[in-house]
Every structure is written in C-alpha cells, then in structure tokens.
Amino acid sequence: MAADVTDTARTWNRKRGVLSTLPFLFVGLADVVLLLFWGIDPLWGFMILPPILFCSALSYIVFATDFLDDRT
C-alpha cells in the first residue's frame, strides 16, 4: 500500500514540476522567436536558447524533487 502512495506522490511531483516550469519555458522560447522575427542575426537568438533551457531544466528538478520542502 505504501508503494502506491509513493508512486502517486512521484507522479504528482512530476506533474507539478512540468506545470510550474512550462510558463517560463514558453516565455523564453517566445523571446527567441521574437528575436528571430525581429530581424536580429539568428546567432543571437540561439545564443540565449541554452541558458533558457538550462534554467527550465533546473527549475523542473527543483519542483519535481521537492528540493526546497525541508527548508524553513
């Protein structure tokens, strides 16, 4: 029975991580698209893409693993 609760909690944490990270990822990708349509050299648009993806992955890890739950 305890395994079911743990699996449900993991699923919820992953879902919460995705739902918390997606808005920031979409804003970052929209910024890249805006830069590319604005007419700036495509290199600049793709230079800011790795930090956006890294920060999104880092925030997913923090939200999905409850990294900050035990801090008071």
From TrEMBL:
Residues 4-72 form the DUF8142 domain. It holds the Pfam family DUF8142. Keywords: Membrane, Transmembrane, Transmembrane helix. It comes from the Archaea. InterPro entries: DUF8142 (IPR058455). The chain crosses the membrane at residues 18-40, 46-68. The keyword Membrane applies. This is DUF8142 domain-containing protein. It comes from Candidatus Halobonum tyrrellensis G22.
